[in-house]
Amino acid sequence: MDIIVLRPGVTDKEIRHVVKKLGNKGFKVQISKGTERTLIGVIGDTSKVTEEEISAFEVMSGVEKIHRIIKPFKLSSRDFQAKNTLIKVGKHTIGGKKIHVIAGPCAVENMTTLLKIAKEVKKSGATFIRGGAFKPRTSPYSFQGLGEKGLKILAKTREETGLPVVTELMDPRDIDVIMKYADVIQIGTRNMQNFRLLQEVGSHDKPILLKRGLSATIKELLMAAEYILSRGNNKVILCERGIRTFETATRNTLDLNAVPVLKKLTHLPVIVDPSHGVGKWDLVAPMAKASIAAGADGLMIEVHTNPEEALSDGEQSLKPAKFKTLMKELKAIAKVVGREI
Amino acid sequence: MDIIVLRPGVTDKEIRHVVKKLGNKGFKVQISKGTERTLIGVIGDTSKVTEEEISAFEVMSGVEKIHRIIKPFKLSSRDFQAKNTLIKVGKHTIGGKKIHVIAGPCAVENMTTLLKIAKEVKKSGATFIRGGAFKPRTSPYSFQGLGEKGLKILAKTREETGLPVVTELMDPRDIDVIMKYADVIQIGTRNMQNFRLLQEVGSHDKPILLKRGLSATIKELLMAAEYILSRGNNKVILCERGIRTFETATRNTLDLNAVPVLKKLTHLPVIVDPSHGVGKWDLVAPMAKASIAAGADGLMIEVHTNPEEALSDGEQSLKPAKFKTLMKELKAIAKVVGREI
Amino acid sequence: MDIIVLRPGVTDKEIRHVVKKLGNKGFKVQISKGTERTLIGVIGDTSKVTEEEISAFEVMSGVEKIHRIIKPFKLSSRDFQAKNTLIKVGKHTIGGKKIHVIAGPCAVENMTTLLKIAKEVKKSGATFIRGGAFKPRTSPYSFQGLGEKGLKILAKTREETGLPVVTELMDPRDIDVIMKYADVIQIGTRNMQNFRLLQEVGSHDKPILLKRGLSATIKELLMAAEYILSRGNNKVILCERGIRTFETATRNTLDLNAVPVLKKLTHLPVIVDPSHGVGKWDLVAPMAKASIAAGADGLMIEVHTNPEEALSDGEQSLKPAKFKTLMKELKAIAKVVGREI
Amino acid sequence: MDIIVLRPGVTDKEIRHVVKKLGNKGFKVQISKGTERTLIGVIGDTSKVTEEEISAFEVMSGVEKIHRIIKPFKLSSRDFQAKNTLIKVGKHTIGGKKIHVIAGPCAVENMTTLLKIAKEVKKSGATFIRGGAFKPRTSPYSFQGLGEKGLKILAKTREETGLPVVTELMDPRDIDVIMKYADVIQIGTRNMQNFRLLQEVGSHDKPILLKRGLSATIKELLMAAEYILSRGNNKVILCERGIRTFETATRNTLDLNAVPVLKKLTHLPVIVDPSHGVGKWDLVAPMAKASIAAGADGLMIEVHTNPEEALSDGEQSLKPAKFKTLMKELKAIAKVVGREI
Known about the structure:
The structure is a homotetramer.
Chain A: E1 2-6, H1 12-24, E2 28-33, E3 38-43, H2 51-56, E4 63-68, E5 87-89, E6 92-94, E7 100-104, H3 111-124, E8 128-130, H4 148-161, E9 165-168, H5 175-181, E10 184-187, H6 195-202, E11 208-211, H7 218-229, E12 236-240, H8 258-265, E13 270-272, H9 274-278, H10 281-294, E14 298-302, H11 320-336
């Protein structure tokens, strides 16, 4: 259902024209003449109507504005499914009482380093290993990742530690190779509206970790999830990781408000990546604790044994000892909010 | 100390001109000729130099850019004072181990309602009562507050409950009347850069609760505090209350990142107002918990016994029962992060 | 007229409660049961209802959201007055066919400099002199203006050149002194929502130049104008001067889109200040030309004979020779869009 | 050359450690002990050093901050090439004195409509036809474009009218089919940081129209161009099309400031798309005029013979008659700024 607001002085002819167009699309109308404006209520299920179709009415003579009443996302909405979606990955379940922590370096660098990090984070309670083999980098002159070699290192690390692997897919042409090695496929911030990539992962059944775009609204994040869900893959984990604002004291502005807002709007699990959100290792711990307090279902944290030598994002990585301390505090906070880690 | 970056192809004459101007202001220089740019290092205490004086160098022929090395705020900086500032209000101390919760309605409406709310929030553990007598409203047609009558109601409520009063000053002409009734003077978001108001409260010795402007950077918040400190009043409490971003799912984007960033940069206490930050009562509790987890020294929360009838901001006020539940959870989280409420 | 959207599963009892509350406020309702949501249309003139009163309905059980149909500003709206407001200042009229250029230094420094600048800009076609006597500065350590001495210099300059004076009021306590010397009173960016100051200038009859706040929406700018208009002063000139965004290549993001949007929404004149908008003198000329092409009624441009020595904003000031060249181009563009300078 | 700012109280051991690391990377240093901070100047060509390598220094003990002196983009910079890049497309040259206008519908719908629009816009002076065959849509339920069928319609239209074709590539897997039909390949806003797509088009030699991302800084736009240039394709046309800000009165905030800023920083041509920038047809004309006044090298404008029936973006399309009037005004403004259309 939508409301069409007409301009002051709209003519009967103009109204009839709008009503006829609506009729052509199968809608009934209800006209309300108010003291200052006349409104047309569009009756019927406008949720099948695209934003574009509706907005085309905005160019019609006599029309001032359209108010959409129905949310544009459906499958990801709590209206559609009230119960939390639980996503199984091996023996783990994401979205339930247990909070999961995905930890590891930004980029996979070599077997020795990754394995060392994986063992450390596992000991502290992390349940997934992360690491990029394909890296989206702002500069063409930056390290672009090891590619399939990196994926093999991740798989080997999983074999040794039992930790399932979360890693990023950047290009639909890499889907087969990623499917071979990943347990959870990450869609990065810069690809949140790479619709072809979303359609591609929507056609497979691996869990998808979908990161919010730098300037994506919460509604757009849910619309991006809708792309995946509408293709049949309902294993989507949403990830808040910082938005772009005017503030430059932090790399991005981690928007923790998104956590309770998303938990209200959608049944999908919501996790937080404070490392990218703030971009400085000494701000990661407070924001990780705040994420759990705000109701997040999980965390994604960059950990590196030697941040000074990291090939990427060293400045936002925790050392294993700091990570261990943080995990203890996170456990205590999880308990306060009725969860466990 | 500052660095002046010169354009490629800068002439010796241009360099001499810049150096001479710096000399006139009492600075020595150190020139470094790099492969791509020549730099002038400005030696001496440039912290006394204003942004304007330095930026005037940017118009000089041959100059490309100025990099300022020193932070523009001084008295509020941890470099200036490493130890946390403790602010005494009656028997309470803000900025120490104990976290304080300031609660109450957005606007003072009448004696009965305010007293009822005050008693409720005190029972749950709040240590200050808040309520606006002078209200900054976006619309001239909105309720503008009771003025001095409202202040009297606040004072009476303090008498009955023992809770010190936090209330807003909007106009330098109201300073005397506010001084008579308030224990902590609030400078609101829209007045964070009302420099005359800042100078006015800087000349008195009441504690000031300085709210971050909607589009103020953390640096600008500290510069606003500097206005107050530089006049001799060092009792400034900073308050994060949401910034303006592109996201419209929440009233503002509560920027909890500001909490650990501020705690690192300044010795002043930092509190959070989640009610204005999110603008919806059901998001207040998770963000209040997140604030404490992130390291805040206090909270400011809107509570109303009858939000439906509130004259202002009803949609973001908690009812006393919800506030009570929240306070219990806050106590548990405070303990995890080594604090108490 | 407003639309109240009810939650799915709303009960009849909840609906009756909302309807009763509306009845208490004197409104009739029209209920539409759609396939996915039930709506309540609020009939009657809700424009007298404040945002707060309406938003209080959002906390009511069963209510999901309120859509406001009527714009919250009235007196400043084209619905209220279709014809452009013409503002007379001496022999000049702002808001008509002629485009006015207000030029001068950021701050008044001394008689000699101001007079020299005034003569230069007048020769090039500027019709008003600008210059701050009271300066809002981010840092308490920056030059704060000459105060009344500066106003006297402005008045003297007017006497010599015939150019009317535009200067800023920062504090309601300075209203009398400003009234004595200014022809147009400027309300600065940081005071756009200093509601007491708006009320103060609304009670006098001098023309007001109201600058858009750094993070103010166009709607909020019109609400700020409404404060002045609702007190009886309808001589308000709106000024776009750059908003705060994530982009740091320019000091602010001059939002020229605001020009055609405002011209559509309001009958008040709209001018642009490209100097503050971009913050670099070499970007001022292209943006000044763009402003006129976009439909602005005037410009405010910083000009200084010696930007290197300016006490404020030297980096964004044009030298008189550049200003002269710019004025020639502006005249040609004005002609293309059916205006004159 | 970069500057490393050390913390107050940094030890000699910490300094030696940083200096050693720099030495390992082949850099010499120059240490300046100031009154408040010690700085390390890094001597040598740091432009080959990635942001990541340098930022890794930020985690080192004793380091406070890094100031980068050199711009991170090279090939696209005016430092690298002072003269404007001229891009030949058939008989046209983009980036020279002549301003080009690319016009057409948002999406290709059918042969009849496109041809009709193409003939109309050509008559008014447009020199390129635009139309999407692959459409990035926020909702999976919106029209996604005709695919290759759309490309064939574009090619047929070029045959009939002689207008070269600008159309979007969304997926690296479509590169071959796009190469067959397009004269200029558009990279859309949501793909500005789809680095694989950038590398793909960098390996071909068709001109690329690179649209600025919704939340991309000007620097990031140039870094995205760098991806294409660094692969050997130097025919990149930059396009400003609106950024995301807090303002909701327009679909996006068209950032015309970017035009003079880019013309200063880069030798690549800069065009503007006011249709997407503002999202309302009645704001397109003023912003198109403003774009030319600000110094743009071209425009991209949505035109549709029947906006009410457009399958996409009808609300922001001009009808041919309005486009014709606009073109006349644009010609007059172009002349004022020393250009022609």
